[in-house]
Specification:
Strand content: under 5%
Structural class: mainly alpha
CATH topology: 3 helical TM bundles of succinate and fumarate reductases
Organism: Futiania mangrovi
Number of strands: 0
Largest sheet: none
Protein name: Succinate dehydrogenase hydrophobic membrane anchor subunit
Distance between the termini: 63 Å
Number of domains: 1
Number of helices: 5
Keywords: Electron transport, Heme, Iron, Membrane, Metal-binding, Transmembrane, Transmembrane helix, Transport, Tricarboxylic acid cycle
Helix content: over 70%
Radius of gyration: 20 Å
Shape: elongated
CATH superfamily: Fumarate reductase/succinate dehydrogenase, transmembrane subunit
Subcellular location: Membrane
Cofactor: heme
C-alpha cells in the first residue's frame, strides 16, 4: 500500500487523527438542531413579550416548552464545546496549554450546561 504522507510526516510518524469527519458531522448536526430550536425560542419569546414573571414561569412549566428548552441548552453547550475545541487545537501550540484549555472548556461547558438544565427543571417541576 502506498504511503501518502509528506516526507516531514513520515519523519515525525504523524498521520491522520481519524477523528476529523466525526467531529465535523457532530458540529453540523448540533448546529442544525440549534437553528431549529433557536427559531422556536425566538417565536416563543416574541409571544411572551410584555409578560410578567408568573406568565414566563407558567410558560416554562409546560412540558411542551420545557423539553425544547432543555434540548436547546444541551445542543448549545455541546456545540460550543466542539467549536472551542477546534479553535484551541488550531491556535494554541504548547501541548500543556492546549491540554489545560481543553480540560477547562470541557469542565466549564459541562458545568454551565448542568446548571442551566437544573434551573430549567427547577422551574418546570415547580421545586
Amino acid at each position: 500500500m502506498a504511503d501518502f504522507r509528506t516526507p516531514l510526516g513520515r519523519v515525525y510518524g504523524l498521520g491522520s487523527a481519524k477523528d476529523g469527519t466525526g467531529h465535523f458531522i457532530r458540529q453540523r448536526v448540533s448546529a442544525v438542531a440549534m437553528a431549529v430550536l433557536a427559531i422556536w425560542f425566538v417565536v416563543s419569546m416574541i409571544g411572551l413579550a410584555g409578560a410578567g414573571h408568573a406568565e414566563a414561569t407558567a410558560w416554562l412549566a409546560r412540558p411542551v416548552n420545557a423539553i425544547p428548552m432543555l434540548l436547546l441548552v444541551i445542543a448549545a453547550f455541546y456545540h460550543a464545546r466542539l467549536g472551542l475545541q477546534v479553535v484551541i487545537e488550531d491556535y494554541v501550540h504548547g501541548e500543556a496549554a492546549k491540554m489545560s484549555l481543553l480540560m477547562l472548556v470541557t469542565f466549564a461547558t459541562f458545568g454551565l450546561g448542568v446548571a442551566c438544565v437544573f434551573s430549567i427543571l427547577k422551574v418546570a417541576l415547580g421545586a
